[in-house]
């Protein structure tokens, strides 16, 4: 744009160049008339939906309950997740194939893309928005990139698969090691990463979460019948056991689907956890980390997600019961609503203040929008095999 | 824009109209080159700073630590506050003079302005973004407006001054009555407001807050030596006394400045409250509502605000000690930093994930930006008598 304007300003418009100006002006008009350049677009109510089969992202608008564009060419998006820049303009997409892609949600296009590993499993963005970290299965370890350029600024090898990577305040990242049962805290605020290693988390941590205040890190363990927590506010955080033997004395059901721990949520005074291999969700006091109750559910929960105010918990289930959603009331811990949105309900995302929820119904090829007060369906939006839904409000939160 | 494009498409460009097209195209170019129309501006990291003396708003960018524009003509902005639309594009500004002004932060201009009362004291926006409510001293009561048009959709007279107006989930607003000591819950989800009245809150509630989950409403009382809480998740919420006789046995200091309760914050397991008429902040267990500690401070606290992760509490003070900030560590409840940014520190706003804080230093005519980890000053920004600072991330939160 700038060269064109300079040319017009500096030249006397004779008949000869008038045509050139005209042609350029019309070209500029054409540019202006695209939605990206012309429309004054606020980004606070936008979002991206992962379309795993086609390697694309659907750009959506919460207020209009509509899709407003599609970004293609993102490679293997099975198990993909993403984080947002602080201005809610750019998304960093972590593909299963090791691809790290920076997407401009305003221009609806890919800005940069690097293949940073052979097999990756999620990432996080630092509190200052300068760094994005990726957790890798192959070759293992964590790699940290500049959010502007996607150049690698730190490589943290671990010798094994890393899981449960989250950001915490102070330009720090926390993650766990599958093979050694350690949790590492990487402080990236200085020139070189400072690593603190915490052993004794337990056998084979497979996923983890951090609370919204960045204080409590909880790891799920594949090799033990309990979970492990860390209080990151302590000078030297020590592993604490949660829910020891929670499945003891009961025949373990086959694990159709590993529950996702990023779905764990604070609801009222409790954390709500999907029980691994059981048809129930578990309630744990957020302070004492003691069990406070169990709610029997329709199937093996995959995500147990609290509405942002914590008053309701929405649960979806593993195959073959993944056509169903149950809603639990936090005060009574009872199921207050049960419905079947359609085949393959893979993910849920609440509007930031919780009045609506969006569901990915993969095998129906639809996103469905519901009112969380009346449970009324408000809208269906076409999407190609939708999975994860990510609203831009995540930019303002720790640990997502 | 659209008529111009249509004209070009439908006409054969003969020499005669070519000049018209050229002129129009250049006019369009000029339009395109204004920052509003051309620049792809994400809104997630923007904010507004109230310039009370000049009745203007400074538009600021958190990532650039810079002011990027000014919006004028907002009338009396002493004690002004504002809320944001869910897309983080529009702000609704509540002026002390009863003015309600809708501002477009992308176009940097006033969209609509109505004088809705003689004297107003804050407002709130519903969870669905459809309604904005204003709390009035004169003529009293609460008035509710459509956020698109600013047309009044509900008038809720109370016969007296109303204070402590907040939004809670379910398209509801909660507020208290100075004269009668009642709290009212107004449900605006249907055609007509449904009002629930809760008497017995105590004498002369002067301000109130609701927790981020919309569950606990706490009113400060001018006529009593305690505070009163409501659990809004109960079917019939009952007033509970907090901190009875907290100033008993001690000579009350003159109240230079009423503490602002919207500054109350959840830090770790506790609420942190500025003590009225005392040189201290009070810590109250967020579950039991019992006092857990007191921290002696430099002066009478005005705002005691938790960093978003709750690990620090930043406190400013009433005149004549309002050149100072103290920072308290939540774990030890001890002051860990004391500094004097300059004369008239009126307000603080944290970046959404808490790595930086912006301070209004009114009598220095500056906003100052600090790193909350190192306490280093990162930037000074010129402003005309700045007071309240409001970042767009507030759009995604309940009760702010």
TrEMBL record, chains A, B:
CDD domains referenced in this protein's UniProt entry, alphabetically: 8prop_hemeD1_NirF
InterPro entries associated with the record: Cyt_cd1_C_sf, Haem_d1_sf, Host-pathogen_enzymatic-act
Family matches, as PANTHER family: DIHYDRO-HEME D1 DEHYDROGENASE, PROTEIN NIRF
UniProt protein name: Cytochrome D1 heme domain protein
Lineage: Bacteria, Pseudomonadati, Pseudomonadota, Alphaproteobacteria, Rhodobacterales
């Amino acid at each position: 744009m700038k060269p064109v304007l300079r040319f017009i300003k500096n030249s006397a418009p004779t008949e000869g160049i008038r045509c050139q100006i005209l042609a350029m002006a019309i070209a500029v008009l054409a540019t202006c008339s695209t939605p990206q350049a012309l429309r004054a677009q606020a980004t606070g109510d936008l979002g991206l939906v992962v379309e795993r089969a086609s390697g694309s992202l659907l750009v959506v608008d919460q207020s209009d309950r509509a899709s407003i564009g599609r970004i293609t060419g993102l490679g293997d998006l099975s198990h993909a997740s993403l984080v947002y820049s602080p201005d809610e303009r750019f998304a960093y997409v972590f593909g299963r194939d090791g691809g790290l892609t920076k997407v401009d949600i305003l221009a609806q296009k890919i800005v940069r893309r690097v293949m940073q590993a052979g097999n990756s499993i999620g990432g996080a963005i630092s509190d200052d928005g300068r760094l994005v970290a990726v957790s890798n299965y192959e070759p293992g370890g964590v790699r940290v990139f500049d959010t502007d350029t996607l150049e690698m600024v730190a490589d943290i090898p671990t010798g094994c698969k890393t899981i449960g990577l989250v950001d915490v305040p102070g330009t720090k990242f926390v993650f766990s090691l599958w093979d050694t049962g350690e949790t590492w805290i990487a402080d990236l605020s200085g020139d070189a990463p400072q690593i603190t290693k915490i052993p004794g988390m337990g056998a084979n941590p497979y996923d983890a979460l951090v609370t919204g205040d960045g204080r409590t890190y909880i790891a799920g363990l594949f090799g033990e019948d309990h979970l492990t927590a860390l209080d990151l506010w302590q000078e030297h955080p020590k592993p604490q056991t949660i829910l020891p033997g929670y499945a003891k004395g009961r025949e373990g059901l086959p694990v159709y689907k590993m529950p996702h721990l990023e779905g764990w949520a604070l609801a009222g005074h409790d954390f709500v956890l999907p029980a691994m291999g059981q048809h129930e969700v578990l309630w744990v006091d957020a302070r004492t980390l003691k069990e406070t109750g169990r709610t029997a559910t329709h199937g093996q929960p995959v995500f147990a997600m609290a509405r942002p105010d914590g008053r309701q918990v929405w649960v979806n289930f593993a195959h073959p019961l993944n056509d169903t959603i149950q809603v639990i009331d936090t005060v009574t811990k009872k199921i207050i609503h049960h419905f079947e949105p359609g085949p393959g309900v893979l993910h849920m995302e609440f509007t930031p203040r919780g009045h609506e929820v969006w569901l990915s119904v993969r095998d129906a090829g639809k996103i469905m929008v519901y009112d969380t007060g009346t449970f009324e369906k408000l809208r269906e939006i076409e999407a190609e095999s939708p999975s994860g839904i990510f609203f831009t409000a995540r930019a303002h939160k720790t640990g997502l």
